[in-house]
Amino acid sequence: MAGLTREHVRVAVIGSGFGGLGAAVRLRRAGITDFVVLERADAVGGTWRDNSYPGCACDVPSHLYSFSFAPNPDWPRNFSGQRHIRAYLERVTDTFGLRPHLRFGAEVRSLRWDTAALHWEVETVRGTLTADVVVSATGPLSDPQIPDIPGLDGFPGKVFHSSRWDHGFALRGKRIAMVGTGASAIQIVPAIQEEVGRLTLFQRTPPWVLPRMDRRISGVERWLHGKIPATRALRRGGLWGLRELQVGAFTKRPNELGLIERLAAAHMRSAVKDPGLRAVLTPDYRIGCKRILLSNDYYPALTQPHVDVVPAGLSEVRGSTLVAADGTETDVDAIVFGTGFHVTDIPIAHRVTGANGTTLAEEWKGGMEALRGSSAAGFPNFLTIIGPNTGLGNSSMILMIEAQLNYMTDYLRQLDVLGGKVALDARPSAVRAYNNMIQRRMERTVWNTGCDSWYLDHGRNTTLWPGSTGEFKKVTRRVDLAEYTVLRPAAVPAKVTVSTADAGRGSR
After folding, report:
1. Is Oxidoreductase one of the keywords (predicted)?
2. Residue 231 CB neighbours (<10 A)
3. Directed axis angle between helix 18-29 and helix 397-418, to 10°?
4. What is the mean pLDDT of the chain?
5. 342, 363, 341: which is closest to 352 by C-alpha?
6. Residue 86 — left, alpha, or beta (φ > 0 → left; ψ -120 to 50 → alpha)?
7. Taking a C-beta distance cutoff of 8 angstroms, is the pair 166, 337 a contact?
8. What are the extents of the domains in the chain?
Protein backbone atom coordinates (compact mmCIF):
# COMPACT_ATOMS: atom_id res chain seq x y z
CA MET A 1 0.00 0.00 0.00
CA ALA A 2 1.42 3.38 -0.94
CA GLY A 3 2.45 5.77 1.81
CA LEU A 4 0.43 8.81 2.79
CA THR A 5 1.79 11.92 1.04
CA ARG A 6 -0.20 15.12 1.58
CA GLU A 7 -3.49 13.42 0.93
CA HIS A 8 -6.49 15.52 1.92
CA VAL A 9 -9.67 13.95 3.27
CA ARG A 10 -12.84 15.31 4.69
CA VAL A 11 -12.61 13.12 7.80
CA ALA A 12 -9.71 11.30 9.45
CA VAL A 13 -10.74 8.69 12.01
CA ILE A 14 -8.10 7.53 14.49
CA GLY A 15 -8.44 3.94 15.72
CA SER A 16 -10.28 0.87 14.45
CA GLY A 17 -11.96 -0.51 17.53
CA PHE A 18 -15.70 -0.27 18.14
CA GLY A 19 -15.57 3.54 18.08
CA GLY A 20 -13.51 3.91 14.91
CA LEU A 21 -15.33 1.22 12.93
CA GLY A 22 -18.67 2.56 14.09
CA ALA A 23 -17.66 6.04 12.90
CA ALA A 24 -16.63 4.62 9.53
CA VAL A 25 -19.96 2.83 9.09
CA ARG A 26 -21.94 5.95 9.98
CA LEU A 27 -19.88 8.07 7.60
CA ARG A 28 -20.61 5.71 4.71
CA ARG A 29 -24.28 5.53 5.62
CA ALA A 30 -24.38 9.35 5.58
CA GLY A 31 -22.95 9.31 2.04
CA ILE A 32 -19.47 10.40 3.10
CA THR A 33 -16.78 8.29 1.45
CA ASP A 34 -13.90 10.79 1.57
CA PHE A 35 -12.38 9.52 4.81
CA VAL A 36 -9.60 7.33 6.17
CA VAL A 37 -9.27 5.23 9.33
CA LEU A 38 -5.76 5.50 10.75
CA GLU A 39 -4.74 2.43 12.74
CA ARG A 40 -1.34 1.97 14.39
CA ALA A 41 -1.59 -1.85 14.43
CA ASP A 42 -1.91 -4.28 11.51
CA ALA A 43 -5.54 -5.28 12.07
CA VAL A 44 -8.85 -3.90 13.32
CA GLY A 45 -10.24 -4.66 16.75
CA GLY A 46 -8.89 -2.11 19.22
CA THR A 47 -8.89 -3.44 22.76
CA TRP A 48 -10.31 -6.76 21.51
CA ARG A 49 -7.29 -7.17 19.28
CA ASP A 50 -4.76 -6.16 21.92
CA ASN A 51 -6.19 -8.12 24.86
CA SER A 52 -5.69 -11.80 24.14
CA TYR A 53 -4.76 -12.99 27.62
CA PRO A 54 -6.03 -16.37 28.89
CA GLY A 55 -9.71 -16.16 29.84
CA CYS A 56 -10.32 -12.82 28.12
CA ALA A 57 -14.05 -12.19 27.69
CA CYS A 58 -16.60 -9.39 27.92
CA ASP A 59 -18.58 -8.67 31.09
CA VAL A 60 -21.56 -7.26 29.14
CA PRO A 61 -24.00 -9.66 27.43
CA SER A 62 -23.08 -10.13 23.79
CA HIS A 63 -26.47 -9.16 22.35
CA LEU A 64 -26.10 -5.77 24.02
CA TYR A 65 -22.37 -5.47 23.37
CA SER A 66 -22.77 -5.13 19.60
CA PHE A 67 -23.93 -2.47 17.16
CA SER A 68 -27.68 -1.98 16.75
CA PHE A 69 -27.07 -1.62 12.99
CA ALA A 70 -25.02 -4.84 12.84
CA PRO A 71 -26.80 -7.47 14.95
CA ASN A 72 -25.20 -10.87 15.32
CA PRO A 73 -27.63 -13.79 15.76
CA ASP A 74 -24.77 -16.26 16.22
CA TRP A 75 -23.20 -15.21 19.51
CA PRO A 76 -22.16 -18.52 21.13
CA ARG A 77 -22.53 -17.47 24.78
CA ASN A 78 -24.27 -14.87 26.91
CA PHE A 79 -20.83 -13.38 27.59
CA SER A 80 -18.70 -14.09 24.55
CA GLY A 81 -14.93 -14.32 24.57
CA GLN A 82 -12.31 -12.12 22.96
CA ARG A 83 -11.96 -14.36 19.91
CA HIS A 84 -15.64 -14.07 19.00
CA ILE A 85 -15.80 -10.31 19.60
CA ARG A 86 -12.75 -9.71 17.45
CA ALA A 87 -14.23 -11.91 14.70
CA TYR A 88 -17.44 -9.85 14.92
CA LEU A 89 -15.48 -6.62 14.30
CA GLU A 90 -13.74 -8.19 11.31
CA ARG A 91 -17.17 -9.10 9.89
CA VAL A 92 -18.44 -5.56 10.43
CA THR A 93 -15.40 -4.28 8.55
CA ASP A 94 -16.15 -6.52 5.56
CA THR A 95 -19.94 -6.22 5.60
CA PHE A 96 -19.85 -2.42 5.40
CA GLY A 97 -16.97 -2.21 2.92
CA LEU A 98 -14.56 -0.44 5.23
CA ARG A 99 -11.26 -1.99 4.13
CA PRO A 100 -10.51 0.53 1.34
CA HIS A 101 -10.58 3.26 4.01
CA LEU A 102 -8.21 1.52 6.44
CA ARG A 103 -4.58 2.61 6.78
CA PHE A 104 -2.71 0.08 8.91
CA GLY A 105 0.66 0.85 10.49
CA ALA A 106 -0.27 4.54 10.46
CA GLU A 107 0.23 5.57 14.07
CA VAL A 108 -0.50 9.27 14.54
CA ARG A 109 2.55 11.24 15.66
CA SER A 110 0.89 14.64 15.82
CA LEU A 111 -2.26 16.55 14.99
CA ARG A 112 -1.96 20.30 14.50
CA TRP A 113 -4.78 22.73 13.73
CA ASP A 114 -4.04 25.14 10.87
CA THR A 115 -6.03 28.28 11.69
CA ALA A 116 -5.54 29.88 8.28
CA ALA A 117 -6.47 26.79 6.25
CA LEU A 118 -9.15 25.62 8.73
CA HIS A 119 -7.98 22.02 8.66
CA TRP A 120 -5.89 19.55 10.62
CA GLU A 121 -2.33 18.63 9.73
CA VAL A 122 -2.10 14.93 10.55
CA GLU A 123 1.39 13.46 10.78
CA THR A 124 1.61 9.67 10.85
CA VAL A 125 4.56 7.31 10.75
CA ARG A 126 3.67 6.71 7.09
CA GLY A 127 3.50 10.34 6.04
CA THR A 128 1.35 13.44 6.41
CA LEU A 129 -2.19 14.23 5.35
CA THR A 130 -4.73 16.96 6.03
CA ALA A 131 -8.33 16.60 7.15
CA ASP A 132 -11.25 18.97 7.58
CA VAL A 133 -12.47 16.97 10.58
CA VAL A 134 -10.70 14.55 12.92
CA VAL A 135 -12.59 11.91 14.90
CA SER A 136 -10.44 10.45 17.67
CA ALA A 137 -11.55 6.93 18.58
CA THR A 138 -8.39 5.72 20.29
CA GLY A 139 -10.35 4.60 23.35
CA PRO A 140 -9.42 4.91 27.03
CA LEU A 141 -8.35 1.25 27.37
CA SER A 142 -5.69 1.20 24.68
CA ASP A 143 -2.39 2.20 26.30
CA PRO A 144 -1.31 0.00 29.22
CA GLN A 145 -0.07 1.49 32.46
CA ILE A 146 2.73 -0.21 34.40
CA PRO A 147 3.58 1.40 37.74
CA ASP A 148 7.07 2.71 38.40
CA ILE A 149 8.31 0.03 40.79
CA PRO A 150 11.83 0.45 42.23
CA GLY A 151 14.08 -2.36 40.99
CA LEU A 152 11.73 -3.54 38.23
CA ASP A 153 14.37 -2.88 35.56
CA GLY A 154 16.66 -5.39 37.28
CA PHE A 155 14.14 -8.23 37.42
CA PRO A 156 15.74 -11.19 35.58
CA GLY A 157 12.48 -12.92 34.66
CA LYS A 158 9.64 -12.13 32.25
CA VAL A 159 7.54 -8.96 32.64
CA PHE A 160 4.47 -8.00 30.62
CA HIS A 161 1.11 -6.26 30.89
CA SER A 162 -2.13 -8.22 30.58
CA SER A 163 -2.98 -6.35 27.36
CA ARG A 164 0.36 -7.30 25.81
CA TRP A 165 0.31 -10.99 26.73
CA ASP A 166 3.43 -12.90 25.74
CA HIS A 167 2.06 -16.13 24.25
CA GLY A 168 5.59 -17.37 23.67
CA PHE A 169 6.26 -17.58 27.40
CA ALA A 170 5.57 -21.05 28.84
CA LEU A 171 3.61 -20.80 32.09
CA ARG A 172 3.75 -24.47 33.06
CA GLY A 173 5.45 -24.98 36.40
CA LYS A 174 6.50 -21.34 36.68
CA ARG A 175 6.13 -19.06 39.70
CA ILE A 176 3.89 -16.23 38.52
CA ALA A 177 3.03 -12.93 40.18
CA MET A 178 -0.28 -11.29 39.20
CA VAL A 179 -0.22 -7.61 40.14
CA GLY A 180 -3.67 -6.05 40.37
CA THR A 181 -7.23 -7.23 40.95
CA GLY A 182 -9.18 -5.56 38.17
CA ALA A 183 -11.36 -6.96 35.41
CA SER A 184 -8.43 -8.58 33.57
CA ALA A 185 -6.86 -10.13 36.68
CA ILE A 186 -10.01 -11.94 37.79
CA GLN A 187 -10.16 -13.63 34.39
CA ILE A 188 -6.45 -14.42 34.19
CA VAL A 189 -6.10 -15.94 37.68
CA PRO A 190 -8.55 -18.83 37.20
CA ALA A 191 -7.44 -19.34 33.58
CA ILE A 192 -3.78 -19.96 34.47
CA GLN A 193 -3.84 -21.27 38.04
CA GLU A 194 -4.03 -24.96 37.06
CA GLU A 195 -1.01 -24.62 34.77
CA VAL A 196 1.44 -22.61 36.86
CA GLY A 197 3.64 -23.96 39.65
CA ARG A 198 2.74 -21.16 42.05
CA LEU A 199 0.59 -18.07 41.67
CA THR A 200 0.88 -15.01 43.92
CA LEU A 201 -1.76 -12.30 43.67
CA PHE A 202 -0.75 -8.82 44.83
CA GLN A 203 -4.00 -7.20 45.92
CA ARG A 204 -3.91 -3.53 46.81
CA THR A 205 -7.71 -3.26 46.96
CA PRO A 206 -10.17 -6.20 46.86
CA PRO A 207 -12.96 -5.96 44.28
CA TRP A 208 -16.63 -6.74 44.71
CA VAL A 209 -17.39 -9.83 42.62
CA LEU A 210 -20.84 -11.05 41.56
CA PRO A 211 -21.78 -14.35 39.87
CA ARG A 212 -21.38 -14.41 36.10
CA MET A 213 -24.69 -15.56 34.66
CA ASP A 214 -23.08 -17.13 31.64
CA ARG A 215 -24.22 -20.06 29.54
CA ARG A 216 -24.05 -21.39 26.03
CA ILE A 217 -26.67 -19.92 23.68
CA SER A 218 -28.47 -22.90 22.18
CA GLY A 219 -28.74 -23.67 18.49
CA VAL A 220 -32.51 -23.15 18.66
CA GLU A 221 -32.06 -19.65 20.08
CA ARG A 222 -29.52 -18.77 17.43
CA TRP A 223 -31.80 -20.11 14.69
CA LEU A 224 -34.68 -18.01 16.02
CA HIS A 225 -32.53 -14.88 16.22
CA GLY A 226 -31.40 -15.41 12.62
CA LYS A 227 -34.82 -16.22 11.15
CA ILE A 228 -37.03 -13.98 13.29
CA PRO A 229 -35.24 -10.65 13.94
CA ALA A 230 -37.94 -9.60 16.41
CA THR A 231 -36.69 -12.24 18.88
CA ARG A 232 -33.21 -10.80 18.66
CA ALA A 233 -34.50 -7.26 19.18
CA LEU A 234 -36.60 -8.42 22.14
CA ARG A 235 -33.57 -10.01 23.77
CA ARG A 236 -31.47 -6.88 23.29
CA GLY A 237 -34.28 -4.65 24.52
CA GLY A 238 -34.73 -6.73 27.65
CA LEU A 239 -31.01 -6.59 28.46
CA TRP A 240 -31.00 -2.83 27.92
CA GLY A 241 -34.16 -2.19 29.97
CA LEU A 242 -32.92 -4.18 32.96
CA ARG A 243 -29.75 -2.10 33.11
CA GLU A 244 -31.63 1.16 32.70
CA LEU A 245 -33.71 0.25 35.76
CA GLN A 246 -30.50 -0.13 37.78
CA VAL A 247 -29.13 3.31 36.93
CA GLY A 248 -30.91 5.18 39.73
CA ALA A 249 -29.16 3.17 42.43
CA PHE A 250 -25.75 4.03 40.98
CA THR A 251 -26.42 7.69 40.24
CA LYS A 252 -28.90 8.86 42.88
CA ARG A 253 -29.48 6.29 45.63
CA PRO A 254 -26.25 4.40 46.45
CA ASN A 255 -27.73 3.04 49.68
CA GLU A 256 -30.04 0.86 47.60
CA LEU A 257 -26.95 -1.11 46.52
CA GLY A 258 -26.76 -2.73 49.95
CA LEU A 259 -28.79 -5.72 48.74
CA ILE A 260 -26.35 -6.26 45.83
CA GLU A 261 -23.51 -6.03 48.35
CA ARG A 262 -25.05 -8.81 50.41
CA LEU A 263 -25.42 -10.98 47.30
CA ALA A 264 -21.73 -10.44 46.51
CA ALA A 265 -20.76 -11.34 50.08
CA ALA A 266 -22.84 -14.53 49.87
CA HIS A 267 -21.18 -15.36 46.56
CA MET A 268 -17.79 -15.11 48.27
CA ARG A 269 -18.86 -17.20 51.30
CA SER A 270 -20.07 -20.01 49.06
CA ALA A 271 -16.57 -20.43 47.59
CA VAL A 272 -14.20 -19.21 50.33
CA LYS A 273 -14.58 -21.15 53.59
CA ASP A 274 -11.49 -19.75 55.30
CA PRO A 275 -12.62 -16.73 57.38
CA GLY A 276 -9.13 -15.25 57.26
CA LEU A 277 -9.07 -15.27 53.45
CA ARG A 278 -12.62 -13.93 53.34
CA ALA A 279 -11.55 -11.00 55.50
CA VAL A 280 -8.71 -10.25 53.09
CA LEU A 281 -11.04 -10.45 50.09
CA THR A 282 -13.85 -8.31 51.56
CA PRO A 283 -13.91 -4.69 50.29
CA ASP A 284 -14.41 -1.79 52.70
CA TYR A 285 -16.27 0.46 50.25
CA ARG A 286 -19.79 0.58 48.85
CA ILE A 287 -20.30 -1.84 45.98
CA GLY A 288 -20.27 0.02 42.66
CA CYS A 289 -17.83 2.70 43.82
CA LYS A 290 -15.20 0.77 41.90
CA ARG A 291 -16.05 -1.40 38.91
CA ILE A 292 -18.17 -4.44 39.86
CA LEU A 293 -16.63 -7.63 38.50
CA LEU A 294 -18.29 -10.85 37.36
CA SER A 295 -16.80 -14.30 37.88
CA ASN A 296 -17.77 -17.81 38.99
CA ASP A 297 -14.23 -19.18 39.21
CA TYR A 298 -12.13 -16.34 40.66
CA TYR A 299 -12.82 -17.13 44.32
CA PRO A 300 -12.41 -20.91 43.89
CA ALA A 301 -9.04 -20.30 42.21
CA LEU A 302 -7.84 -18.26 45.19
CA THR A 303 -8.55 -21.12 47.57
CA GLN A 304 -6.15 -23.51 45.84
CA PRO A 305 -3.08 -24.54 47.89
CA HIS A 306 -0.58 -23.20 45.35
CA VAL A 307 -2.25 -19.77 45.15
CA ASP A 308 -1.35 -17.00 47.59
CA VAL A 309 -3.08 -13.67 48.13
CA VAL A 310 -0.85 -10.85 49.36
CA PRO A 311 -3.13 -8.11 50.76
CA ALA A 312 -0.87 -5.27 49.64
CA GLY A 313 0.48 -3.71 46.50
CA LEU A 314 3.88 -4.40 44.99
CA SER A 315 6.37 -1.83 46.30
CA GLU A 316 9.84 -3.06 45.33
CA VAL A 317 11.70 -5.64 43.25
CA ARG A 318 15.00 -7.08 44.49
CA GLY A 319 16.34 -9.39 41.81
CA SER A 320 13.82 -12.23 41.59
CA THR A 321 12.22 -11.26 44.89
CA LEU A 322 9.09 -9.14 44.96
CA VAL A 323 8.45 -7.08 48.08
CA ALA A 324 4.92 -6.01 48.94
CA ALA A 325 3.97 -2.84 50.81
CA ASP A 326 3.33 -4.95 53.92
CA GLY A 327 6.83 -6.46 53.76
CA THR A 328 5.84 -9.82 52.28
CA GLU A 329 8.57 -11.27 50.06
CA THR A 330 7.95 -13.63 47.15
CA ASP A 331 10.32 -15.18 44.61
CA VAL A 332 8.86 -15.43 41.11
CA ASP A 333 9.83 -16.24 37.53
CA ALA A 334 7.45 -13.78 35.84
CA ILE A 335 5.37 -10.70 36.62
CA VAL A 336 2.04 -10.02 34.94
CA PHE A 337 0.71 -6.50 35.44
CA GLY A 338 -3.05 -6.12 35.42
CA THR A 339 -2.71 -2.48 36.41
CA GLY A 340 -5.02 -0.78 33.97
CA PHE A 341 -4.54 1.86 31.32
CA HIS A 342 -3.85 5.55 30.76
CA VAL A 343 -7.49 6.60 31.05
CA THR A 344 -7.40 10.16 32.40
CA ASP A 345 -4.05 10.94 30.77
CA ILE A 346 -4.65 9.48 27.31
CA PRO A 347 -1.45 9.60 25.22
CA ILE A 348 -3.16 11.00 22.10
CA ALA A 349 -3.90 14.20 24.06
CA HIS A 350 -0.17 15.01 24.10
CA ARG A 351 -0.10 14.83 20.30
CA VAL A 352 -3.02 17.16 19.54
CA THR A 353 -2.23 20.89 19.24
CA GLY A 354 -5.22 23.20 18.97
CA ALA A 355 -5.98 26.72 17.77
CA ASN A 356 -4.22 28.36 20.74
CA GLY A 357 -0.95 26.48 20.20
CA THR A 358 -1.46 24.32 23.30
CA THR A 359 -1.92 20.58 23.41
CA LEU A 360 -5.06 18.85 24.56
CA ALA A 361 -3.03 17.38 27.43
CA GLU A 362 -2.06 20.90 28.55
CA GLU A 363 -5.67 22.07 28.38
CA TRP A 364 -6.74 19.02 30.39
CA LYS A 365 -3.99 19.19 33.01
CA GLY A 366 -6.63 20.03 35.64
CA GLY A 367 -8.95 17.26 34.41
CA MET A 368 -10.62 16.26 31.16
CA GLU A 369 -13.59 18.31 29.94
CA ALA A 370 -15.54 18.19 26.70
CA LEU A 371 -18.91 19.39 25.47
CA ARG A 372 -21.28 16.41 25.43
CA GLY A 373 -18.24 14.14 25.72
CA SER A 374 -17.17 15.10 22.20
CA SER A 375 -15.78 18.63 21.72
CA ALA A 376 -13.00 20.41 23.62
CA ALA A 377 -12.80 24.21 23.48
CA GLY A 378 -9.95 25.45 21.28
CA PHE A 379 -9.88 22.31 19.14
CA PRO A 380 -12.13 23.03 16.15
CA ASN A 381 -13.55 20.16 14.11
CA PHE A 382 -12.05 17.65 16.53
CA LEU A 383 -14.44 15.07 17.97
CA THR A 384 -13.75 12.35 20.52
CA ILE A 385 -15.58 9.03 20.68
CA ILE A 386 -15.65 7.73 24.27
CA GLY A 387 -14.55 11.14 25.47
CA PRO A 388 -14.72 12.60 29.00
CA ASN A 389 -17.68 11.50 31.13
CA THR A 390 -19.05 8.98 28.65
CA GLY A 391 -18.12 5.80 30.52
CA LEU A 392 -20.60 3.48 32.22
CA GLY A 393 -20.68 1.50 35.41
CA ASN A 394 -23.41 -1.00 34.57
CA SER A 395 -24.27 -1.18 30.86
CA SER A 396 -22.86 -1.45 27.35
CA MET A 397 -20.42 1.15 26.04
CA ILE A 398 -21.65 0.41 22.52
CA LEU A 399 -24.82 2.32 23.41
CA MET A 400 -22.75 5.36 24.35
CA ILE A 401 -20.62 5.04 21.23
CA GLU A 402 -23.70 4.99 19.00
CA ALA A 403 -25.05 8.10 20.75
CA GLN A 404 -21.79 9.91 20.06
CA LEU A 405 -21.92 8.73 16.45
CA ASN A 406 -25.32 10.41 16.17
CA TYR A 407 -23.66 13.61 17.39
CA MET A 408 -20.80 13.21 14.92
CA THR A 409 -23.21 12.73 12.02
CA ASP A 410 -25.19 15.85 12.92
CA TYR A 411 -21.95 17.79 13.40
CA LEU A 412 -20.97 17.03 9.80
CA ARG A 413 -24.49 17.86 8.62
CA GLN A 414 -24.27 21.25 10.31
CA LEU A 415 -20.97 21.94 8.52
CA ASP A 416 -22.70 21.16 5.23
CA VAL A 417 -25.63 23.45 6.06
CA LEU A 418 -23.27 26.31 6.95
CA GLY A 419 -21.55 25.77 3.60
CA GLY A 420 -18.08 26.55 2.31
CA LYS A 421 -14.87 26.23 4.28
CA VAL A 422 -16.08 26.22 7.85
CA ALA A 423 -15.24 24.87 11.30
CA LEU A 424 -16.96 24.68 14.67
CA ASP A 425 -15.16 25.42 17.93
CA ALA A 426 -16.89 24.62 21.23
CA ARG A 427 -17.43 27.77 23.29
CA PRO A 428 -15.56 27.66 26.62
CA SER A 429 -18.74 28.82 28.39
CA ALA A 430 -20.72 25.92 26.90
CA VAL A 431 -18.06 23.39 27.87
CA ARG A 432 -17.95 24.83 31.39
CA ALA A 433 -21.73 24.83 31.82
CA TYR A 434 -22.04 21.24 30.57
CA ASN A 435 -19.27 19.96 32.82
CA ASN A 436 -20.55 21.89 35.85
CA MET A 437 -23.84 20.05 35.32
CA ILE A 438 -21.99 16.74 35.14
CA GLN A 439 -20.08 17.36 38.37
CA ARG A 440 -23.20 18.53 40.23
CA ARG A 441 -24.94 15.30 39.31
CA MET A 442 -21.83 13.31 40.16
CA GLU A 443 -21.93 14.41 43.81
CA ARG A 444 -24.67 11.94 44.77
CA THR A 445 -23.44 8.98 42.74
CA VAL A 446 -21.93 5.81 44.19
CA TRP A 447 -18.64 6.64 42.46
CA ASN A 448 -18.17 9.60 44.78
CA THR A 449 -18.76 7.72 48.03
CA GLY A 450 -15.11 7.64 49.03
CA CYS A 451 -13.16 4.91 47.25
CA ASP A 452 -10.02 5.48 45.19
CA SER A 453 -10.68 4.38 41.60
CA TRP A 454 -9.42 4.96 38.08
CA TYR A 455 -12.63 6.88 37.45
CA LEU A 456 -11.19 9.87 39.35
CA ASP A 457 -8.75 12.54 38.20
CA HIS A 458 -7.67 15.35 40.53
CA GLY A 459 -10.51 14.29 42.80
CA ARG A 460 -13.16 14.65 40.08
CA ASN A 461 -14.89 11.88 38.19
CA THR A 462 -14.02 12.74 34.59
CA THR A 463 -14.71 9.33 33.07
CA LEU A 464 -18.29 8.23 33.84
CA TRP A 465 -21.71 9.47 32.76
CA PRO A 466 -23.98 10.16 35.79
CA GLY A 467 -27.20 9.06 34.12
CA SER A 468 -28.87 6.50 31.89
CA THR A 469 -27.90 5.64 28.34
CA GLY A 470 -31.30 6.95 27.25
CA GLU A 471 -30.48 10.35 28.78
CA PHE A 472 -27.11 10.44 27.04
CA LYS A 473 -28.74 9.64 23.73
CA LYS A 474 -30.98 12.67 24.21
CA VAL A 475 -28.17 15.12 25.02
CA THR A 476 -26.18 13.97 21.97
CA ARG A 477 -29.08 13.79 19.52
CA ARG A 478 -28.24 17.09 17.81
CA VAL A 479 -25.55 19.74 17.69
CA ASP A 480 -26.65 23.08 19.13
CA LEU A 481 -24.83 25.76 17.12
CA ALA A 482 -25.32 28.21 20.01
CA GLU A 483 -22.71 26.14 21.88
CA TYR A 484 -20.13 26.71 19.15
CA THR A 485 -18.24 29.53 17.48
CA VAL A 486 -18.47 29.29 13.69
CA LEU A 487 -15.05 29.78 12.09
CA ARG A 488 -14.47 30.83 8.50
CA PRO A 489 -11.28 31.80 6.63
CA ALA A 490 -10.07 35.29 7.46
CA ALA A 491 -10.94 37.82 4.76
CA VAL A 492 -7.89 38.87 2.73
CA PRO A 493 -8.02 42.55 1.61
CA ALA A 494 -8.03 42.93 -2.16
CA LYS A 495 -4.84 44.37 -3.63
CA VAL A 496 -5.57 47.80 -5.20
CA THR A 497 -3.37 49.23 -7.96
CA VAL A 498 -3.47 53.04 -8.33
CA SER A 499 -2.29 54.66 -11.59
CA THR A 500 -0.16 57.82 -11.71
CA ALA A 501 -3.01 59.75 -13.29
CA ASP A 502 -5.45 58.67 -10.59
CA ALA A 503 -2.92 59.67 -7.97
CA GLY A 504 -2.63 63.08 -9.54
CA ARG A 505 -6.40 63.61 -9.64
CA GLY A 506 -6.68 62.57 -6.03
CA SER A 507 -4.15 65.23 -5.01
CA ARG A 508 -6.03 68.18 -6.35
Report:
1. yes
2. 15
3. 40
4. 94
5. 363
6. alpha
7. no
8. 4-143+344-487, 152-215+223-337
